[in-house]
């Protein structure tokens, strides 16, 4: 009887060890799979200049695209840029349509329940943008006004939570700026960096409200990957830290933004 119980215990322990090893191996598989495939599929909207947009050669370029390509290169693989609407970008990641999201995504507790983040890879501030000659001077002046936001981003959620704004959602910044200039919206709410870069190119006259205490005034943005991939996360984090340390990140940031936005 004792021998039989001992045999059962040994068998059970073996199963447990095998299961633990299999789980550990499965969690490491994604990094190995990427290296085997030779490709890192990177998702972004393609509608968010200067972070991701389509150039005259029909190529998706920008800060996010360059960061994704640089990370892939240091992982020893090639980057495949995939554009997809931002509001469904996490769902696409979980469905394994791509391997990472480099799309200026704000790190939030809600998103951290669904995905893991590498980074932050830059920081930005929430901006309330109006036309230069607008009568809107402070946050309270937005009461009852129409504001534009990017569909699915953290600023859309913030604007809708205010309860006193009419919120109009857009796929990207260019359409928002056109509607702001035409008076179809009174303001737009989004990260400050892309707005400043965009209007520098278009010559559009805008003003950013002074809102030092606004929620999300300075936020961290990260690279999203699927959960339970500790080796992939650690490797990508190390690659990003190396880029920050050796000047590669600053070079990309200066090219697309004109300043170091880490």
Automatic annotation (TrEMBL):
Domain Ionotropic glutamate receptor C-terminal stretches: 39-259
Gene Ontology MF terms: ligand-gated monoatomic ion channel activity
Signal peptide (UniProt feature, chain positions): 1-28
Keywords per UniProt: Signal
Domain Solute-binding protein family 3/N-terminal span(s) in chain numbering: 39-260
Main localization of the protein described in the UniProt heading: periplasm
GO cellular component, one term: periplasmic space
Location(s), subcellular: Periplasm
PANTHER family: AMINO-ACID-BINDING PROTEIN YXEM-RELATED, MEMBRANE-BOUND LYTIC MUREIN TRANSGLYCOSYLASE F
Name used for this protein in its record: Polar amino acid transport system substrate-binding protein
Species assigned in the record: Rhizobium lusitanum
């Amino acid at each position: 009887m004792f021998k039989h119980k001992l045999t059962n215990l040994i068998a059970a322990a073996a199963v447990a060890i095998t299961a633990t090893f299999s789980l550990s191996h499965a969690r490491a598989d994604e990094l190995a799979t990427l290296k085997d495939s030779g490709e890192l599929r990177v998702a972004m909207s393609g509608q968010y200049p200067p972070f991701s947009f389509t150039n005259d050669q029909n190529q998706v370029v920008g800060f996010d695209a360059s960061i994704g390509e640089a990370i892939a290169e240091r992982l020893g693989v090639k980057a495949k840029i995939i554009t997809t609407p931002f509001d469904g970008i996490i769902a696409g990641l979980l469905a394994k349509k791509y391997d990472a999201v480099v799309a200026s995504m704000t790190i939030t507790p809600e998103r951290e329940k669904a995905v893991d983040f590498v980074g932050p890879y830059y920081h930005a501030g929430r901006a309330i943008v109006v036309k230069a000659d607008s009568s809107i001077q402070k946050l309270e002046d937005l009461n009852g006004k129409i504001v534009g936001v990017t569909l699915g981003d953290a600023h859309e959620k913030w604007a809708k939570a205010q309860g006193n704004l009419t919120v109009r959602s857009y796929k990207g910044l260019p359409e928002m700026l056109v509607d702001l200039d035409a008076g179809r919206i009174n303001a737009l709410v989004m990260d400050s960096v892309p707005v400043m870069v965009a209007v520098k190119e278009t010559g559009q006259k805008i003003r950013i409200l002074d809102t030092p205490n606004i929620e999300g005034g300075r936020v961290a943005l990260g690279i999203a990957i699927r959960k339970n991939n500790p080796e992939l996360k650690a490797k990508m984090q190390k690659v990003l830290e190396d880029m920050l340390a050796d000047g590669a990140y600053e070079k990309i940031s200066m090219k697309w933004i004109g300043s170091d936005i880490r």
